[in-house]
RNA sequence: GUCCCCAUCGUCUAGAGGCCUAGGACACCUCCCUUUCACGGAGGCGACCGGGGUUCGAAUCCCCGUGGGGACGCCA
């Protein structure tokens, strides 16, 4: 049987890191088995769903490069089909009208909680043989409930967590259609997973408790039961649950923050899944290796430092020319305009080994295009009065040479020797004068890129 | 409260009864490289939640505790 997986977000917000990992695993499973990956938008909560959120999810998927084979399907466009199935269930006695008001149900819930019982519908409108139902009130629009089995257990072999068994006594008759006639989540999922032929449902483990209900409905419909894999949640950097208030950000935020999608993907793949000791791999490799047997059943804490390490790794893999457009954009956001000279790609190549993020990279080379502010401590430490005449003389010599890193190095070396200095005695003041700080790559390489005229002009700012 | 799930270094994890004196990665520390800072290289620190079983033998299997998480909506 062909593998068919799906990612089914509800468009009530952006695609966050947890959703992204769920999508990634579903996608990889389908790719691994040469199956199909389906995107389904669960937008039946009309009040909270927005077109912007749909777009945000699509954008997130696109940025990550998670492509789907079918869809996106929108549940709101499948209303007629859901209603058909509901009618069929009513006709077959598998579902029934319930006239309990929200207030009534609320009172029931409170009573049960107060008596240390699990809050659940008591079946007062559930038709049974020989049971007399109350007369339907005229002013209440009924909801429709699924007639859940009352005895026995539901059990499934979860691909991540192992066998899970839940007693039907724990379940109640859930609402499958609201008073206004619209079907609810648990019902739509069942119809869709069934009719879309989903073979493996890979989703967050907050759905574990929905699974027995869905299996019961699937069985009532005579549908095949898919396999289930429930992924544990991702905790924030501080071990706390991610929430809107706390650390849950759009995957697109990682783009803004200067992370490469390949780094985020690689990081997410290793969060809760492993392939021996392998840490660094691309998505082609991941799709070959991925399986559900090596998923950790416990929650995983997000670790930005490890993401940084991976991101730094992937930045190093790229060439300056690959990154020119991206870095230019990031510099522009900081009002730094990239002039034709120095050549941006060369500056990137010089700095890409020392950046964790593209934003850091952009920041670190901004001084090539914009006079840097000089760090006060570095200034005091390295640009001492005695060094100024040396710099003056050096600047004259520099104005007379061919502007190559070798020639520059030679000039600095000569200057060092003539004065009986060690190399840093000259290199450090140059660093501070040219870059504004005391850390930079090899100073002759910096100067070669900065340009002869600009180098000399920056040095001379400090003389007189 | 009821039900369900989870539990190896600070973090992500390897581990399917003997290969475990518990391995790798991030972070941290030391040293090397060096023109400063990085990169890179070599080392180091550091964990099986507790208690009972089962077994010749348990990180691995079972039970109980403890701790953490999830679910209990006319949300998804």
Question: SSE layout and pairings?
Answer:
Layout: E1 4-7, H1 17-32, E2 36-41, H2 51-64, E3 70-74, H3 79-91, E4 95-98, H4 102-114, E5 143-146, E6 153-158, E7 162-167, E8 175-177, H5 185-195, E9 200-204, H6 211-220, E10 227-231, E11 234-235, H7 251-256, H8 261-270, H9 283-289, E12 300-301, H10 304-317, H11 320-333, H12 344-351, H13 358-365, H14 376-382, H15 388-398, H16 405-419, H17 423-435, H18 443-450, H19 452-460
Parallel strand pairs: 1-2, 2-3, 9-10, 11-12
Antiparallel strand pairs: 4-5, 5-8, 6-7
Helix pairs in contact: 1-9, 5-6, 8-10, 11-12, 11-13, 15-16, 15-19, 16-17, 16-18
The chain binds one RNA strand of 76 nucleotides through helix 4, strand 7, helix 5, strand 12 and helix 10.
